Amino acid sequence: MRPLVKICGITNYEDAALALELGADFIGFVMAPSPRRVEAASVAAIVARLKDRGLLARARTVGVFVNQEPSLMASIMAEASLDEAQIHGDEGLAFCEALPFPWYRALRVADVADALRLAGLWAGSSSGRLLFEAASGRAYGGTGVQVDAEAARAALLACRRTGKQFFLAGGLAPGNVGSAILSLGPDGIDASSGLEDSPGRKSAEALRRFFAAIAAASGGR
């Protein structure tokens, strides 16, 4: 079965529209310090144009946040017309459970023990989805590095046991997304830097190849 697809690091209307036309289920906007950061007003304008074209009828918009105050996040979510938040910093379970908007947690894992520990820690959360990416020397945000295969499988199985959706992120690109789908069967995949010409600017060719590879690995669905 075809996994859900999130295209993240969106900074402009053209990239957002193409991703949605190709079949993205989520588009992500980085609302924290990053080369891909966009202001809430700019996101709101992009979202409004997408809605006018009917491109968000079946897709959702996601804001990526890192160690930001709940009141600030709520204000940004409202101004930018975002549907849900991806929590990507040091925020704990109690912090996330108190948030007044839909959210899910991104977790950075180095090895199997890490994956099992974090999956267990968040198993009781109200979020139905956990996103796993590779830990690296970078403090926060996407790493552009693939998750260790055994760690990813451990996280997947832990999510299956607790009824959480397993989303895979980190280093996914047209050349490797098919093998990731075939080997793991994730519920969702998240890609950003592997689809770019430059930070915040997607390659139309890479996007098309990415979705073609997903379809091929998913039996054409």
Strand and helix map with partners:
Elements: E1 4-7, H1 13-22, E2 26-30, H2 40-52, E3 60-65, H3 70-80, E4 84-87, H4 93-97, E5 103-109, H5 112-121, E6 129-134, H6 149-162, E7 165-169, H7 177-184, E8 188-191, E9 196-198, E10 201-202, H8 204-217
Parallel strand pairs: 1-2, 1-8, 2-3, 3-4, 4-5, 5-6, 6-7, 7-8
Antiparallel strand pairs: 9-10
Helix pairs in contact: 1-8, 2-3, 5-6, 7-8
Provide tags for this entry.
221 residues; eight-stranded parallel barrel; two-stranded antiparallel ribbon
Describe the structure.
- It is a single chain.
- This protein is of the alpha/beta class.
- The protein has one domain: Aldolase class I (TIM Barrel), CATH 3.20.20.70.
- It has helices at residues 13-22, 40-52, 70-80, 93-97, 112-121, 149-162, 177-184, 204-217; strands at residues 4-7, 26-30, 60-65, 84-87, 103-109, 129-134, 165-169, 188-191, 196-198, 201-202.
- A hairpin with a 2-residue loop joins strand 9 (196-198) and strand 10.
- The model has no long low-confidence stretch (mean pLDDT 94).
